[in-house]
Amino acid sequence: MTHDPSHTACLELFEKLSEYLDDELDEQICRQIEAHASTCVACRACLETLRQTVALCRAMRRTEASVPGAFSDRWKEYIRKMASEAMSPHKS
Amino acid sequence: MPNPSDPKIKQDDDFELIQAINAGHTELFPELVSRYERKLYNFGMRMCRDVQDAEDMLQDTFLNVFRYLKDFRYETRFKNWLYRIATSTCLKKRRKSRFAPERELSLDEFLPREEAEIPVQTPAWASLPLDQLLNEELSSIIKESIQSLPENYRLVLVLRDIEGFSTAETAQVLGLTPENIKVRLHRARLFLREKLKDYFSHDA
Ligand SMILES: [Zn+2]
To answer: What's the predicted TM-score (pTM) here?
Structure first.
């Protein structure tokens, strides 16, 4: 099947792909998108590459760094001091 | 005084701790800090330029939380309020970046321009399991690509897809409409997808 980039159905789908992936569309529109993607190779590729992009992005959560130790110690001491000073009886 | 029978408040995991701190047990504040310090530091690393900026952001954010916690009324989850403060701290710290100049992304720039750019099949990388795909190299490509997003788009993408906030929550954190969040998120994802397409086409 030939694909025309100015095809209205393709453009409409292109605009809504993220909402589709996030399950933010009415069921009826979801069905239209699925029906179109099942016959249009280009839109299917577009949908699947975007889906994978989002999945990769979400997977970045796994690579969380720790707060650098020296900094953490230094400023936690500061926070502790600040918190205990706020407790002292002469506070307003 | 917030009414603790409000179901919204009961859902907030931090409710009891915040109540205790606001009742005068400020010595418990470091506990609140340790609940979020790591998450927020990583958020800072994604939003700021370097470690120093991320550390400053963390520090300034918690100083502001300490200062204004008494006024927190549970109109949102504490976490959302915290990110709202962190975000405005980030934006204040912003430096003009030559890697990610401020600009608007338009949908048009992500549409295929020529017949040759229109895919004739779904590329292999789009259907591989993440564990097979995501190695250290790709991981750093993704990090760099996120860093190269214009800030307004980066913020939305990081909050939605990495920090895991909903559209409504992200709108609340950033003071924007949900519609606006959706538009920016879609363009930010398309931007990233282009970077990934480039990476995988060189790889092939
Ligand atoms: Zn199509």
So the answer is: 0.88
The residues spanned by each domain of chain A are 8-87
Residue A34, CA atoms < 13 Å, CB-side half-sphere? 10
Name residues whose C-beta falls within 8 Å of residue A16's C-beta, 6 or more positions apart in sequence.
A25, A29, A33
Digit-coded pLDDT (tens) for B66-89: 999 999 999 899 999 999 999 998
Nearest to A82, CA basis, from B66, B33, B56: B66
Is A58's pLDDT higher than 90? yes
ipTM score for this prediction: 0.88
Which residue type is seen at B84?
Answer: R
A46 CA distance to ligand 1 centroid (A)?
A: 9
**Considering the domain A8-87, what is its CATH architecture?**
Orthogonal Bundle (1.10)
Window 26-85 of A: residues touching B by CB (8 A cutoff) are 41-42, 44-46, 48-61, 63-68, 71-72, 75-76, 79-80, 82-84
Nearest CB to B162: which of A17, A61, A71? A61
Q: Is the dihedral of CA B155, B157, B162, B165 positive or negative?
A: positive
